[in-house]
Amino acid sequence: MVALIVLAIVAPIVWGDGADAVDTDQILAPPSGEHWAGTDNLGRDILLRVLVATRLSIVLALLATVIAVVAGLLLGAAPFLLGKRSGRVVVAAVNIAVAFPGILLALFFAVVFGIGATGAVLAIGLAGAPGFARLTQTLVADVEARDYVSAARTVGIGRGRILVRHVLPNVAEPLVVNATIGAGTALLSFAGLSFLGLGVQPPAYDWGRLLFDGIGTIYVNPAAALAPGGAIVLAGLAFNFFGESIAKGLGVPADARLPSLVRKKRAAAPAAEKESDVVLDVRDLEVTLAGPAGPIRPVRGVSFHIRRGEAVGIVGESGSGKSMTALAVTKLIADHGRVDATRLEFLGTDLLAPRTTAQRRTLGTKLAMVFQDPMTAFNPTRRIGAQLAEVATHHQKVTRKEAMTRAVDRLNAVQIPDPDSRARLYPHEFSGGMRQRAMIGMGLMNTPALIVADEPTTALDVTVQQQVLDLLATIRESDGAALMLISHDVAVIGDVCDRVLVMYAGRIVEELPTGVKPLHPYTRALMDAVPDMATDLTRPLATIPGRPVDPADVPPGCPYAARCPLADDHCRTEDPPLAPDSPNHWVACWHAGEEAP
Known about the structure:
Blueprint: H1 2-20, H2 46-82, H3 84-99, H4 102-113, H5 117-144, H6 147-154, H7 159-195, H8 207-216, H9 223-249, H10 254-257, E1 278-291, E2 294-307, E3 311-315, H11 322-329, E4 337-340, E5 343-346, E6 349-350, H12 357-366, E7 367-370, H13 374-377, H14 384-395, H15 400-413, H16 419-422, H17 432-443, E8 450-454, H18 462-479, E9 482-487, H19 490-496, E10 499-504, E11 507-513, H20 521-528, H21 569-573, E12 579-582, E13 585-587
Parallel strand pairs: 3-9, 3-10, 7-8, 8-9
Antiparallel strand pairs: 1-2, 1-4, 1-5, 5-6, 10-11, 11-13, 12-13
Helix pairs in contact: 1-2, 2-3, 2-5, 2-7, 2-9, 3-5, 4-5, 5-7, 6-7, 7-8, 7-9, 8-9, 14-15, 14-17, 15-17, 17-18
């Protein structure tokens, strides 16, 4: 590739005059020691013309590539920037354009813009834009679903800044590879248009034009066509291999590529209303998602509350609605989902009301979210310390130096060894347990009133799992923060929490204090499925028969009836309400407390 660029710069200077020199005594001469590829119908040296044409061929291809990349990035990022409804129109337009072969689009635009180099550049560029836009849409959609993007939205960062700071740096590698390979494709396409007479016009010439001239004399001098054809092939390969090499060399941190952002000072938030003992109050929460066969309700009428300093666990099998409930109360449900509730309040703030600066500030400073997989919760292109510091610079309006000092202090608080040097590392340089502790440290950059931990120990070994649980308990005791711990492990919930919510098929089927004997058959089955030191190793482990209910197809009656040993016809026809068995114990079962025969 370097040799190609040097040739493009040097060739017109060194051989420009020789390539244009007319020699009527050497018209259509075959290859010889004087003319290695022969001459054309005016006696001009074909090889020199191929070398000189390198500059124009590459420059035009790069111009077309720039147009394709810029237009493709704008179209590809438009759904993210415009939102769900307007974005659909852009996606549909791109899908229609991609359905047409690129060469047809290029020919169409060539006719629209006219014959010549300018028209061909615009034609090739716009013809390549749909494919690049489709790739960008796919990559952006994948990164958009990551937890660190959701967190950025929660704290009120605008879509444009999220795109530049969090999304594009993480999709840069495939985009650069495809842009470089696209330059090779543009080179071939441009040569094709010039070969058809729609590109470069005489007296100018590029490789495509020379190939057209050489084809006319191919039976007299095959080298006249082989020389420009070989140049096109070699240049195309150079662009492709160069793209692969560039991809391996990427990995520059986002901070090094972005200018510093000047933040405007905002007016202080109004004083909060009189504090209540209840941190989170949820009544009749429902989450509705769009499905292929109609709306799906993974959460159906969930009600609970969490008081200051209280630890509440939500337990259930995968698909029971635990994580969806957490996402709903933290306002992280994706655009295609809808959240409804009779009441959804956090520290007196109505989370169902339109998003405001005050609401974002409350969520950003008083609510901490610990995700299941910290590798997706952290931006892989930014250092750990910078990501923690961003919380303080955004919400507390402190300088970057003060925010970094706070970040190091929080890493130390969550027992990260040598926090000062660790703050300068990237997420992949942390172990799984360290990443999870750093995730908790990010939540502690402010003073959270509620920590929502969504299966924070699932991917960790038992030793690190206990360390993380102990850390959460210590934070809760020292800071007085409430804890909502989500897990499928009943033993973990019983170890850490004061109260347990058992979910099945999107509903709470039992609410009870830890240490109290459960009454619902599903809760008892979950507990029996956890082996302990007294488990008889000669007998098969206890399991729950059947499979969890599909949220898209919830049967009538009690959803657990098909798996329950106590179920009867009444259970299969009528869904039991969540009713009190004692002041602090609620259960939704027609046979609560009964033993299986």
